Amino acid sequence: MKWILIYIVLTADFAKLAQYETYDTMPECFDAREKLVETVGKPIINYQIICIPKNLEELEWQTH
Questions:
Q1: Torsion sign over Cα 37, 39, 44, 46
Q2: pLDDT given at position 53
Q3: pLDDT of 24-51, one tens digit each?
Q4: 3-state secondary structure the chain
Q5: CB under 8 Å to 64, separation ≥6 — which residues?
């Protein structure tokens, strides 16, 4: 499993989404998230940075 760091920014008209990096572990992704929050600035308003786990072997969405 890999971890994907995603950066979401809200503007007046829409949201922008950018994938930043892929990490091998959750702690690596969370550390990178904290560094990016420090770069972008606090408080976290009009943006969010999240780490999402991704199973690279599973290519299709599962619906139940």
A1: negative
A2: 95
A3: 999 999 999 999 999 999 999 999 999 9
A4: CEEEEEEEEECCCCEEEEEEEEECCHHHHHHHHHHHHHHHCCCCCCEEEEEEEECCCCCCCCCC
A5: none
Burial environment of residue 41 by CB neighbours within 10 A (0 to 12, 13 to 18, 19 or more): exposed
Establish how many alpha carbons lie within 13 A of residue 49's alpha carbon, considering only the half-sphere containing its beta carbon: 19
Is residue 2 within 8 Å of residue 24, measured between CB atoms?
yes
What pTM was computed for the model?
0.76
> Which residue matches tokens 């990016």?
36
Average pLDDT, the chain: 88
